Predict the structure of L-aspartate oxidase.
Amino acid sequence: MTDPVTALQAKTHPVWEAAADLVVIGSGVAGLTAALRAQELGLHVLVVTKATVSDGNTRWAQGGIAVVLEGEHERGDSVGKHAEDTLTAGAGLCDEDAVRSIIAGGPAAVARLRAEGARFDPAAEGRPELARTREGGHSAFRVIHAGGDATGAEVERTLVATAGGRRIPVLEHHIAVDAIRTPAGEVVGVTVLDHNGVPGVVRAPAVLLASGGLGQLYQATSNPELATGDGLALALRAGAQVADVEFVQFHPTVLFTPGARGRLPLVTEAVRGEGATLHDATGASVMRGVHPLGDLAPRDVVSAAITRRMVQAPGGVDDHVFLDATGISGFAKRFPTVHAACAAIGLDPAKEPIPVTPAAHFACGGVVTTVDGRSGVRGLYAAGEVARTGLHGANRLASNSLLEGLVVGRRVADAIAADFAIGRLADPRRGVLAPPVQAPVADRDALQRAMSRYAAIGRDAEGLSVVGSVLDLSVVESPLWTPRIVEDAALTLVAEALVAAAARRTESRGCHVRTDFPERDDDSWQRGQLIRLSPSGQPVLADPIALEGVA
């Protein structure tokens, strides 16, 4: 009779192996930008993605790309002013050098994307100048868009078409499970599972995490089902450090539908940029007197204001407010995606206000990297939402995410090629296949309910303790032998890290709002918090990180 350990080893033993110079985990804007650039530089690239190549979070981005294009910007606007707005939104936790470096790379990145065939909306028919809008936290009209509110879809279409044309290999319907490391701890590949749980190995001297965010930690999110924090968990298990994970940005306005769970349709911030206003069930303004920018205040301010108003339950409504866009002419043409989502629930935004509520939207923290994607572990890189470059700080400025993916995606490919050329990376043949990973796995439904109730926008010590108790009570140790278990283990680990950081940060800053510590405390807390795994596999807080300079 086969003992359980032998049976587990047989089930998780790789049945195939592949090799590359670079394996990219994720097929969104950062991952595909990096893959395309790496191929240009002569590297053999393999992209691994959980669904199909076009199913990442990028295609859901509605708002646009924040960028100050030479000769195509509002009078008085500049790259420097874009950086200043980013620093203001980041509430004192941005790395200023990183902000200025990444923002400065935006115009060239967008120019390259346009050269590859991306089509952005023109200011007027037949004119080369692009239309620009303004979103929350921006001091100027500098957000370019495509298809009205389908910018992410156009960016993804362009990158997927280019990658297909250049025949970049893509391994679809596979999830990355764990890093392969040398005895010295260098990363030299990953283990993967297909949708049936069949295991395989990809050996490569460089692994780029471009796996997106963690929106599925919460019941309501703008993120697709794929956003389960897998890359963050893999990086922690590989020995990397993460930071700023307590800062989860909630988009102020997703379309409210009673009882809905998972990914909800986004009502882009650009709707407010075009003049829509928020009010409660009694018709009272939500943002009046809250912030000088009113309805165009930064996302953390608007989300928190909506949450406070819902708690008051004006007119007996405690789970949503209303976005009045009836004054916007040509709404269906300007915002076709939003209009279609509203029409699906029988609502016409031109005639009646849109019911909206905040939902988990973007992880401002992630794997600690330089502005060119290098982590603290040799051979492991990160770009996009999974990374913490220092650009976003405590709160991301609207429409900076696609920009970051384009800029850092290219830079990380350059960094990998340079590291490869100088012999900095380890030989994949030295990688040791570790025994099957066993990890704590919490019940996803219980986890999402607890995180949404106690660790979303308004947090306090008691509620965060409740989340910790839920995790303790619902966790079971499990081998990572199915994609669902890999995802649930990642959500569990990321939730533990987030709760630890949120409990320790006894202040309110950016999108981290503590109701028991409502004030910002620059004397004690104008710093990031590093998290690593302890020898027992628990996330623990390490020394704070400096917010000056970039490597």
